Amino acid sequence: MSWLSTSVVGRAWDEWRHRDLQAGDDAEDFLLVTWDSCRYDVFCDACTPTLDRYGSARRAWAMATYTLPAHQAMFAGFLPHVFEPLPFYNRFVQQLWRISHRNLNVKPLVTFPEGRGGIVTGFRRRGYATLGVAAMDWFAKPSPLQEGFEWFRVTGTRARDQIDMLCEQIGRRGRRRPCFAFVNFGETHSPFWHEGMAHVPDPGGDRMSLGRLFNASGVRDPSQSLDHDLWRRQRRSAEYLDGQMTRLLDCFVARGRPTTVVVTADHGECLGEEGLYGHAFHHEKVMEVPLLIFRLNAAPHAAPQLGRAG
Ligand SMILES: [Zn+2]
Hints:
It is a single chain. This protein is of the alpha/beta class. The chain has one domain: Alkaline Phosphatase, subunit A. Strands 2-11-8-1-7-5-6 form a seven-stranded mixed sheet, sandwiched between helices. The longest helix is centred in the last third of the chain and has 28 residues. The structure holds zinc ion.
């Protein structure tokens, strides 16, 4: 942060200057959606006709092993990383949202001054409606994950209600200004339950019970392997969420603004590999996540242009 940034005039100058350091403009809507704990292989195998219309998810590497730090990374501008030369999927090609004072060879789509909070705060300072709804308790106050949001609700696992609430707020608060909207869905988190699924005792659900997770050994046991019942149960939840995505995306289509959409998972999940269940430890199946980025109401973003570093 420069000395100039500490003054009122300096802050205004920084804001003005940053508009010139980015490739995008301030008319774009953004929607970030995390399917909590959704494994990459589950996402790829699931029947997802809604999202298939917009492309195929890439295999990405999560920034952290559990909900809190993984979302903190995203709200600091670091999406899961894809090792392919693709803008936004690979921030070394072009970063979608960036906190920086630097003039980069490839301008990020959006950039905010450093030292003023995260991406959400940055959008709010620019006049965006910053609206979020989350299933997981990690988002409950005083969570740092609510920083910068002008409206936020923690709901538990209720995708249908989450979408209703968010779309209502978008209509109310975002009528005359752009939106940064965020949704964290819980259906793909253990016990992999979704609306309409029977509440009868389920051997798969029992195997993912909190009692079991809290009493797991956390020790690799090479004789153990993937629990296919649990895997299929998460896949059913993923397919349910894909069906719900239709209404969420329609809400942005109806607004008519160019909208960049990011669909990903904060981390994956072990489902019995080497005797491991859950997340919050490093394992390939915890770290690999799906990442899909597309645009509504406009042509895809132009290929990044090499600029001149200052
Ligand atoms: Zn999570």
